[in-house]
Amino acid sequence: MSLTSTADRIKMAVSTLSFARVGPVHFQPLEWELAPLASYFRGEVLNAGCGFRDISLLLKSFGATAVTNVDIETNLPGATVSPLDALPFENARFGSILCNAVLEHVGSAEDVMSELIRVLQPGGHLIVSIPFLQPYHESPTDYRRYTREGIKQLGERYGLEVIAIKPVHTIAQTIGWILWEYPKEHKGWALRMLLWPLIWLGTRVSCRSNLVLENSANTFQAVYRKLEQRE
Predict the structure, then answer these.
(1) Following CA atoms 148, 153, 155, 158 in sequence, which dihedral angle do they give, to the nearest 10 degrees?
(2) Calpha distance 126→105 (Å, rounded)
(3) What counts of helices (H) and strands (E) characterise the chain?
(4) pTM (2 decimals)?
(5) Hey, what domains does the chain have and what are their CATH numbers?
(6) Each residue of 71-114: pLDDT tens digit?
(7) Are the C-beta atoms of residues 29 and 18 closer than 8 Å to each other?
């Protein structure tokens, strides 16, 4: 594939960027969040925990030859409806796997990791994103957070090679979300309304990931590689 055609496909994929929001808290478009990892998406890609948004076009612009969406609840056409700890796929099927902001919501992160590794090809990459400094947010539950060392250990525990660990979002999303949730618990509705424009503006202006953060990141993004099988 030529560089021109690759650039055109990425341009098409990001032509309709949308910011995710929690109340007034803006989060950068997923296109921006995943762009630094584009080179790790190869072959058939599994989007594990796809939710209700199809990002197949984006993943194909990165280099995926096909995309399979799976989640315990989804309305995406052609998606597989299944719990992530019991995937209905054969061993070593996928060249790459994306599991973005999902493991904090599953009952057993260990069981899901085992399944993802089972269906990943040797030499393939598993991209996992897990929050560190975020308030509680159910979907439908919320069980855990990971430090930088924690997400590194998670991969090493399963014999994966840790390729990279990157911070995601900025301090604006961390502080803004906490400021938005704190008055809710204390029934401080007036304070919430006063804070709304400040949080909205602050998180909209400061939303691209601050890549120098190591200990105060909102979220950590890990790239693991499944080691080749030995003869």
Answers:
(1) -170
(2) 18
(3) 7, 9
(4) 0.89
(5) 3-225 (3.40.50.150)
(6) 999 999 999 999 999 999 999 999 999 999 999 999 999 999 99
(7) yes
